[in-house]
Amino acid sequence: MRNSPVFNRRNLFGATAAGLAASSLAACATSGSDDDAQEVTVGDDAENPFGVDGSAPLDVVIFDGGFGNEYAVAHQAMYNEAFPDAEITHLATQAIAETQQPRFAEGKPCDVLDNSGAQQIPMDSLVSDGELAELTPLLDAPSYDDPDVTVRETLRDGVLSMGTFNGEVYALNYVFSAWTVWYDAKLFRDQGWTPPTTWEEMLALCPTIQAAGIAPWTYAGQHPVYLYDMLLILAGRHGGVEVLKNIDHLEPDAWRHESVVKAAEALSALQSEGYILEGTPGIDHIQSQTAFNERKAAFLPCGSWLPNEQAAIAPADFEYMPMGVPYFEGSVQPGLISAGGEEPFVIPKNATNLAGAYEYLRIMLSKEGAQIFGDTVQAATVVKGVELSNPAAQATDQLVSNPDDLFQPRFRFWYTAMSDEVKAALGALASGEQTAAEFIDRMQAVADETAADETIDKFRHDG
Amino acid sequence: MKHGRYPFILSFLALPVGLYAWLVILPFAQAFQISLTDWSGSSNSFDYIGFDNYVNLFKDERLVLPALRHTGIILVVLPVVTIALGLFFAFMLNLGGRSRQGRIEGVAGSKFHKVVYFFPQVLSVAIIGILWKQVYAPENFGGLITGAMTAVGLPAPVNGFLADKRFVLAAVIAVLVWSAVGFYLVFFSSAMASIPRDLYEAAVIDGAGRFQMFFRITLPLLWDSVQTAWIYLSIVALDVFVLVYMMTPERGGPDGASEVVGGVIWKYAFNHGEQAFASAVGVVLFFAALTLAVVSLRFGRREQIEF
Questions:
Q1: CATH no. for residue B124?
Q2: The domain containing residue A393 runs over which residues?
Q3: Same domain, A214 and A252
Q4: Residue B138 to residue A223, Cβ atoms within 8 A
Q5: What share of chain A has pLDDT > 70, as a percent?
Q6: Are A190 and A317 within one domain?
Q7: At A307, phi and psi to the nearest 5?
Q8: B140 touches chain A (CB under 8 A)
Q9: What pTM, to 2 d.p., does this model score?
Q10: Is residue A6 over pLDDT 50?
């Protein structure tokens, strides 16, 4: 009894697959509709400058990281106060890219996105793809508290640069932070050490610190990016901010500038002199911060959020104090510091409630909104005039008081390939795996490659 | 009866085949499609750029080529070591003991050992990653192995195993073996249980030692199981990602020394915003897995022995 079925397993399978593939390839991830995005303009009504439809729902996504999301809930309450009928969808997550990238691809993104954390969607690709709304209408709108003052005028100096891509503002970096070197003021007082201002003073102090059984330096060895600002600012202080701008602008031989070489050599020497806590290249940021809290190391490079983050963990008598990275004698711009906005809030261009999103950011930037943030997480926002009580925050404010000295090295955020390379190269440099010369060579190589690659959009400081 | 047969069969097949096509085949097909574009992953517009992604892929000295090398190493080492250990332990636990009055048994306490070896299988990969990260930590920071090595006077890597370019890949492979060996022990044990004891008893009477028993009886009769294990472990080797992500510095470091294909796909898709390029790497991985399965099934085929 032989039969020859029309459908054997294999061709049934093939036919179905082919049919399905043909009919639905057009209807999947890569095929969202490309709506013509609306534009938001600033109207005359100072209460509601963007003409928000009070009944339109608002979809907010918050990065649930070090700052939590309690502040966002409070901001949403403020929004609801103004627009009681608006239904707000609030999502707090750490998986920003995994949850939000598909929505962008579908053409149905959320309205307000806090694009932060390790899982942020790369800003360069969002900007190059034209997925984000430009924020000038927000900045030109009257501020929430005073119709005669624009939102732009309520912000600290230089905080927009981080979200500015070729002259256009695509992200509001809400949190104001600075990269500094931390030390324990109590330890220094007890031991009679003076916090060094120059690199040479620091080197002179290191043997004394070691004599007390403490390693001079530690850092998050598994995440060498914690050294990024320290190295670059060290170089920038020595040679002036132009050195760093040239690096960001991918100028030929920008990395071979003597200040950069000197900074790389100095970092390498910390390792070869044994001034770094043994085992540091193998630890992560939590372990390095714990070692610092336990006073196993005297200096730790980190951002200004550190004392708040450690408040509950550090010993009660630990006094977090920031200082600028000690500069080389003869530096031309010793006050240079990496400070500005972080925690980028963006508005997708295809947001359903575009006006509501602008209004939400305007509320965040109100005095009350900024104070809510300051009170809940003890960190400064980019809004001027919010008082924070703790001494570390006040000391940080001192360090960032000169607007001409504020500069954020940006290539890491502009060019992902360079970001990867600088992390790996810093790790190799600081662990003694590679020399300063090798570090400079590989960074110059990746910069030249990036400059030569026409498929990569190029960015510049100040347009 | 025959007349209504196909609609009847088809009605059963429609749902599973439909689901399979929708959830498995279609995404694969889409990965092919996407790999020919310049899609970033966060937009709904893209252009077709032909095979550029595939060409660039084999020029990528920073991520893709090291990842292919490392995955290649894992692909060779992981199955060999895991299967060798699995077979050895299974043999010892089932047949390795002293024979009492002609009965062949495993070593003493074999039931206890079986449970202990199976333990890692019960833990989730994330827990294994965190656990071993600490085990491999620098001595200064409570590393178990580095501490033990120093205690007995051996030189230990000062920054721990995971921050050392020389050891990081071996450290990851060791964890993979550790977590897989228990499963294959049980797997081979049950296969060994189906080998008739009289074969062994006859061999013992003929004066065979344990080595001969293993290589002349056990291994040949387990060949099918070994082959299955080989394919399965190879696929595990190609898919290594979570441990690298959890344990190593910069998820593939230090300085790219533990970069694997799975991790590189993730990096391009979500860190670099280059979904199309990531899809191209995925397609290459897909063909590698397919080739591997076909090759090992074709060339590993041996005569079946029935008993």
A1: 1.10.3720.10
A2: 58-177+340-397
A3: yes
A4: no
A5: 92
A6: yes
A7: -60, -35
A8: yes
A9: 0.84
A10: no
